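tool=predict chain=A
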Amino acid sequence: MNEIAILELIQQTCFMILKISAPVLIISFIVGLVISLLQALTQIQEATISFVPKLAAILVTFSLAFPYMLQNLMEFTQFLFDKIKVS
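tool=predict ok
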């Protein structure tokens, strides 16, 4: 493999990482933002309040997005094996 092929592979890997982790990160961000807004409105400044809703939202999102994540990961793995086979 030459340098260009390696850089393209690294770029595709980084994009795949973002693609797989995006659903969980976006939901975690939204839930954290809502909880922070509620804490600011009610003036409850307890740091541990945001953990349980965030954890529940992440678990639900992960369970719903798992087939999407797995499918993308399997396609990328097949792509990597094809690249290895060609080289």
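Residues 3-86 form one domain. The radius of gyration is 19 Å.
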